[in-house]
Amino acid sequence: MTNQEFIEQVAKFVKKYAAQYGIKVHSPIIAQAILESGWGNSKLAARYHNYFGLKCGTKWTGKSVNMTTQEEYTVGTLTTIKDNFRVYDSMEEGIRGYFEFIQLARYQNLKGITNPKKYLETIKADGYATSSTYVTNNTKLIEQYDLTKYDKEVTNMSKAETAIKWMEDTAKDDRHGYCQTHRWGKDGDYDCSSAVYTAWEHAGIPVKTYSFEKYGCAYTGVMLAVFKHFGFEDVINKVNVATGAGLKRSDILLNDKHHVAMYCGNGMEVEASINEKGTATGGTPGDQTGKEFLIRAYRNYPWNHVLRYPDGGSTSVTKKSVDEVAKEVLAGAWGNGDARKNALTAAGYNYSEVQAAVNRLAGGKTTTPTKSITEVAKEVLAGKWGNGDDRKKKLEAAGYNYSQVQAKVNELAKGSTSSKKSVTQIAKEVIAGKWGNGTDRKNKLTAAGYDYTAVQKEVNRLL
Asked: What pTM value is reported for the model?
């Protein structure tokens, strides 16, 4: 990989995650990756995808490796030490790991900084690096490789584009939790009000700060006053919130007594909040979007207001051809039964026409399973079909009887106990990366009949 290719790869992931974590400048982070990893060629980067020299610390629960490093505790004097460093499975995970790392309390002052040198000076003062030339070395890299061009991509976005980008990017990240109140939870937790507030905070409009200073909360009941204070216009009379007609990207849909959403313009999808367990969507944690959202939420919580910022995006209800929508239906994008009918109607499509096209494209045939129940059950145990409702939906969409498959899964899992590997053998496979990470690892181990807690304990012991 050439130096420029390395820069482009790092920049791509920095761009993807920076806004989610409140970071508004990219160039110093790209420079840090170059400097800390030696252009990705250090052993820690090349083998373990740790591009920033991130040590484990007390909160890290993932894989680690013990390596030698040097610290400049006294100016001009290098001290060689051994320490445990974080291990990641890919470049993307390693770069996202950087943003997770700087969520520590001492790095919160990095949020909102737009000057590259100030960012470096601040993170150095926060204790991120001991090198006395850290700021100078990174600044030289920024200048030599014109890394500030990646900052311009951030600053050139309109406020509406910035807000919607945060909402869309964060909604894809199922690691965020949800909180039951309309106040701010711990870092990374959002309910519907907090999600919308945060999106516009990242766009440079201090709605969150103003709300708490003025009203002491982020409750939806005060949002109309807060957003109007910052120049948002109520365009409720110019749109049809039951069908989405006239809505623009970044529009805020508000029921000022209970619920709020941001319109992202993906067909008829609305980002209701981030992993919200909300009655308005009928959703579950992780269910951020839904084709049914507008009509369902309109029925349960009629929108009183639609708030639009002056630089709001273009109207996003762009109708597709009947065949295009029919292909999306066949791909599972529009749900089934009444849910499909309601979603298509709400989006302005003729349900009968679309369904006729679906039948024509499908040739009047239903999905026919191609594998035996036993084959599919083995794939389930290998983690290929997901878990819970997701597994059920996928299996049924592929034409399989979920109950039969699950029964065979249980049978195979039970019958394989005599041939199971030892906890130590499995722990070594985990360390080698064969069982994935986090929830994915837990699900796979459990599905295979292993005690996740016992395996993880052995992993920690071996490491």
From this structure: 0.44
